[in-house]
Amino acid sequence: MEKMSGNNIPEKTIERLSEYRRTLLNLHKQGITHIFSHVLAGMHGITAVQVRRDLMLIGFSSDTKKGYDVEELIDFINRILDSSEPMNIAVIGMGHLGQAITRYFNNKGLNLKIVAAFDVDPAKVGTTIEDIPCYSMDDFETDVASLGIDIAVLSCPSRVAAELVVPIVNAGIKGVLNFTSKPLNFPLGIVVENYDITTLLEKVAYFVKENNEDNNEL
Amino acid sequence: MEKMSGNNIPEKTIERLSEYRRTLLNLHKQGITHIFSHVLAGMHGITAVQVRRDLMLIGFSSDTKKGYDVEELIDFINRILDSSEPMNIAVIGMGHLGQAITRYFNNKGLNLKIVAAFDVDPAKVGTTIEDIPCYSMDDFETDVASLGIDIAVLSCPSRVAAELVVPIVNAGIKGVLNFTSKPLNFPLGIVVENYDITTLLEKVAYFVKENNEDNNEL
User: Fold this and answer.
1) Arithmetic mean of pLDDT over chain A
2) Looking at residues B194-202, what average pLDDT do you find?
3) I want to staple A144 with a disulfide (CB 3.0 to 4.6 A). Which of A22, A171, A217, B49 is the partner?
4) DSSP string computed for A20-72
5) Distance separating alpha carbons of residues A22 and B180, to the nearest angstrom
6) Of B46, B183, B199, the CB nearest to A45
7) What count of CB pairs under 8 Å joins A to B?
């Protein structure tokens, strides 16, 4: 998926801005006020040139003799990435993955807020999991509308993923993060990120194999 | 992270090959013998040109009047992505995410095999979780060596991630898939993929915001 935003910021830069911000928030918590581009770069395993290019793209240029002002840069990235109102998120499928995601995001102080979980398991519906109320899939469309949900995270079994496309469209959801192994297509205007973790693992395995073969050739 | 393999196949192509293969295996299971590039493309939300370019890069060219031979293409991708021996994987941290990953990969018939889990929780050590034996972190380096583990998946709490770098290097692990929110650097020769799911969610949220703003301008 190759996306470009209205601001002409490439997708990969958006990813890195999210990563920089997480690092900067950590540094800020530790009382660090300034950071050089090469230090920030090193913490992410990339070059200083890449960091500077990304920050130039978003128009951040206040590099001082002590490096970037951490707080100022966080504020700047916030203005790029965050919408003015927090976005509401629903997690569909509260198995291990859904619970891991929910636990992970809760209380992270993000501009993204998991407000609901959905499951078909009667043992889960009506309870709260990680403090998030779990709703039945039966009333999905009306519940999503009344809760004002913007984004759905799919952590349900892959075999049911395709059945969710129409309810998601009908419910007015604007973004989908799909962790199932079934890639999904949505109509224009709905953002979808298909991310099967198998792909990540197969990619790591491929590059390990390539490294091994390079070493055998020496 | 921008990687190129010895075969000069870009990282993004490797990702898509993994995705194509998963789709092709599904089609094969359903008895489908041939597929056109535009159909395969449509199933992944990309263009037929992209599919053809990827397959050209790996030297696959046997396009017939009925499209690609599904079985032949699977075999071809297998030869690119897979090593001759299955790779052994250890999952470090058997909380919800670790369990989700383990359940997910078990019995998938992949060339990747989760053979061990590691945790610090005495209640988990010595048991099996999803049929995978759970070992203590105390003997991590010797256990990894004796089990012949190639790849580590990190699903432990982010605050302990940095402490794992030295043991992972010492144990001779060749690839790391890091799901914690702490990006890790490893010496040359060890492949690392840092994938914090926060990044994915923040990216989807950003493009939803951009879409909303575009609509408001109309």
Assistant:
1) 89
2) 86
3) A171
4) HHHHHHHHHHTT--EE-HHHHHHHTTS-HHHHHHHHHHTT---EETTEEEHHH
5) 12
6) B183
7) 207
Distance from CA of B40 to the nearest CA of A (A): 11
pLDDT in the model for residue A1: 45
- Burial of B105-121, coded b for 16+ CB within 10 Å and e otherwise, reads beeeebbbbbbbbbbee
Nearest CA in chain B to A180: B104
Nearest to B104 among A15, A105, A197 (CB): A197
Token pair of A157 as six digits: 């079994």
Alpha helical stretches, state H, chain A = 11-29, 37-43, 48-57, 70-81, 96-105, 140-147, 158-161, 165-170, 197-217
Å from A217 to nearest chain B CA? 11
Instruction: With CB atoms and an 8 Å threshold, state whether B189 touches A175.
Output: no
Q: Per residue in B6-61, pLDDT tens? A: 567 888 899 999 999 999 998 999 999 999 999 999 998 889 999 999 999 999 98
From A43, A101, A176, residue closest to B197, measured CB to CB: A101
Q: CA-based angle A199:A201:A202, to the nearest 5? A: 65
Confidence of residue B129 (pLDDT cuts 50, 70, 90): confident
- As a dihedral over the C-alpha atoms of residue A53, residue A56, residue A58, residue A61, rounded to 10 degrees, the angle is 140
> What are residue A96's phi and psi, to 5 degrees?
-55, -45
Residues on chain A touching B87 (C-beta within 8 angstroms): 205, 208-209
Instruction: Give every CB contact of residue B166 below 8 A, 6+ residues apart in sequence.
Output: none
Least confident stretch, A1-10, A128-137, B87-96, B171-180: A1-10
Position of tokens 């807020």? A113
Per-residue pLDDT at A94: 94
CB contact under 8 A, B194 and A7: no
pTM score, whole prediction: 0.83
pLDDT at B1: 45
Q: Which of A106-110, B64-68, B97-101, B187-191 has the lowest mean pLDDT?
A: A106-110
CB atoms within 10 A of CB B69: 16
Interface test with A, best of B96, B99, B155, B212 (most A CBs within 10 A): B96
pLDDT at A4 over 60: no
* Residue B11: Cβ within 10 Å count: 16
Three-state SS annotation for B74-121: HHHHHHHHCCCCCEEEEEECCCHHHHHHHHHHCCCCCCEEEEEEEECC
